[in-house]
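Design job #97: recover the sequence.
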């Protein structure tokens, strides 16, 4: 049994419209980049979230701002660091102390989980919510 021609044409038109609209979604806001030991994801025009840590510091101060580009021009301290993503520091064996700046509002799921040497955390005044198991299994929890 052949599908009716009207249904095929309707489906093709809907698919065409969806594919034509897709590039209008702002993909620039999903930009990821790395500066030093940190990986970041741009959240909006002037804020980023930390998505990775590639260092092995024992005493770490998370930056409150990072450089960014507007067009081709580097703008010092353009982005505010407003979040720490899930699992960023999970399983760290070297991190002993961490200082979170006032700009950070959110600490993600399991962000520091099983950071077995972590004994001291200094939270900035901007932290509004801490996700599930963010500090589960840390030395400071024992």
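Job complete. Output follows.
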């Amino acid at each position: 049994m052949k599908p009716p021609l009207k249904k095929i044409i309707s489906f093709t038109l809907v698919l065409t419209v969806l594919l034509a609209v897709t590039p209008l979604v702002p993909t620039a806001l999903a930009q990821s980049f790395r500066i030093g030991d940190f990986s970041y994801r741009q959240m909006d025009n002037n804020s980023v979230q930390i998505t990775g840590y590639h260092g092995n510091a024992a005493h770490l101060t998370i930056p409150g701002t990072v450089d960014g580009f507007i067009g081709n021009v580097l703008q010092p301290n353009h982005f505010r660091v407003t979040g720490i993503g899930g699992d960023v520091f999970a399983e760290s064996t070297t991190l002993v102390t961490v200082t979170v700046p006032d700009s950070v509002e959110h600490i993600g799921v399991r962000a520091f989980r099983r950071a077995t040497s972590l004994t001291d955390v200094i939270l900035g005044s901007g932290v509004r919510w801490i996700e599930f198991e963010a500090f589960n299994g840390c030395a400071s929890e024992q």
